[in-house]
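Sequence in, structure out. Go.
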Amino acid sequence: MDKWTQIEFFIQVAELGSLSKAAERLDMSSAAASRCLNALEDRLAVRLVERTTRRLWLTDAGREYHRRCVAIMAEMAEADAAVNEAAINPSGTLRVTASVSFASLYIAPALPEFHKRYPDLSVQIVAANRYPDFIEAGIDVAIRTREHEADSSITVRKLAETRRVLAAAPGYLAKRGIPATPDALCDHDLLVYNLANDPYVLHFRRDAKKQSVAVKSVLDANEGQVIRAAALAGLGILIQPLYIIHGDIVAGKLVPILSDWRLPALTINIAYQSRRHQPAKIRVFTEFLIQRFEQLGLARKWNEIAP
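Output:
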């Protein structure tokens, strides 16, 4: 038997004053109980219990061993309770990485409610448009726009899907006109996010028809908020996910164009390391974000063009 079983059994014997009662409490047979006590005494090379057919008592060594074993088991119970408390009330620091746009628009506004629920858990945001390695960066949760991770130890959960749309400020369109076909984009100023897949070729689809258009940019940048700011200022036509510019379209600051044509959509995922026992801080944040997205109906908003 393992040491912990021996210790637990010995404590029961000492407190109940009976081998049979200790065996009954731990659901052991009488033979197994005798073997357990004998194995413990053999391992320690000392007599812990004296017994006759009528009574049982501890030796001096047995009393000292009992005192120390009780203290050890109390420490173990306290450790178990502490871990269980951490599972119910997560604490420490949660490191989350996401793009600058996503972190600003959707994570930061959600943090007051998250902090209210889990006041002992602090959040550290690593805003980055390129994806850092989990292990090297010490990341707990990453918000990413790709469906699969090369590392099989990474778990990916879908948050939402978002359309990519073309839009421009009303002032720009008043001066330059509204392109009616994808080919007409060649006569316009394009604002390009250069970290997108194949950023200078736009792959359109309308029903069964497909069309690819090569574009030149008047501005390209590796940050969506730079592209958005330039579009709001009237510099040209941007190509951005709807989750970044949905509010601008609703407010009339940007006007979607060629909305009957679709560009490849983006899938927004939560990614985290796969573990048998998932840290509570990752579990609660992931569930919180998924529930928030469902409550706000973001997946629906990001797949429709607002009037």
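Check: The chain has a mean pLDDT of 87. Residues 60-88 form the longest helix (29 residues).
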